[in-house]
Design a protein that fits this description.
The chain contains 6 helices and 14 strands. It is α+β, with helices and mostly antiparallel strands and about 260 residues long. It folds into 2 domains: about 1-140, 3-Layer(aba) Sandwich (Glutaredoxin); about 145-260, Metallo-dependent phosphatases (Purple Acid Phosphatase, chain A, domain 2, 4-Layer Sandwich). The strands form 6 sheets. Strands 4-3-5 form a 3-stranded mixed beta sheet. Strands 8-10-9 form a 3-stranded mixed beta sheet, with no helix packed on it. Strands 1-2 form a two-stranded antiparallel ribbon. It is globular, with a radius of gyration of 22 Å. The structure holds glutathione. The site of glutathione has 12 residues, from helix 1.
Length: about 260
Amino acid sequence: MLVNGKWTEDWQPVQAKDEKGGFVRQTSSFRNWVTPDGSAGPTGEAGFEASAGRYHLYVAYICPWASRTLIGRKLKGLEDVISVSVAEPLLGKQGWRFGDYPGATEDHVNGVTYMHEIYTRTAPDFTGRATVPVLWDKQRNTIETFLETIEPEGIRPATDAEVVARLGARPERLTLCGHSHLPGERLLGDGRRVANPGSVGLQAFDDDHPFRHIVENGDPKARYAIVESEQIAFHAVTYDHASAAAKAEREGREDWARALATGRV
Ligand SMILES: N[C@@H](CCC(=O)N[C@@H](CS)C(=O)NCC(=O)O)C(=O)O
């Protein structure tokens, strides 16, 4: 199981029994509802709107609860609407695994090897079992980058439709975002704007979450932006990047040293 986000090996699942030996169902950790308009259901957070292609189901065929969700998906005609990844049919030392056991699949959405990684992606300090089934919201996950979308093929500019979906009903005329370190601005058809001021500290990096991708601004200047009465001015300033790179090198970060010196990985 996971303890404060760390996988605890050799833990064997022990299912609770009542005094007659009957099965006691454990309370699910994430219990939210998908509703027609994203309003709250009886429990959990609001905001999970029914939307074709938005959700991904993680199952293991050996698990009766997971199999029931597959039956429900089939009976409701949702096979083209909800995608599925299938874990291998054994609970190993690290729990459910995506691998090459016949009938199992890779994790098509997050590219993880173990189911517990899905839990810590949502709740980095999660404590509890990493069970199947899980219904995963692909849209919220991609909010980590706003003006870009990260896919198995790498990073690409988000489409306007993706940016609109991430903004939801936010009324603000200007939304500032971060994380990708790529300065830029997007004006949407409804007049709302989203801007990324860029990064002061790091002009290039590579990352493997949620998929391997590379970000490069191509020069070492520090980026920031100033917003004044709805106008955003982007700045790229020269500074003593050589000293910063030398410090990174002294501290054993050659990757950062190169990124600081050149803006490339
Ligand atoms: N919260 C789930 C629990 C389902 C469940 O217990 N799944 C089992 C397999 S049938 C599991 O993933 N066990 C993993 C573990 O206990 O570590 C539900 O009620 O739907």
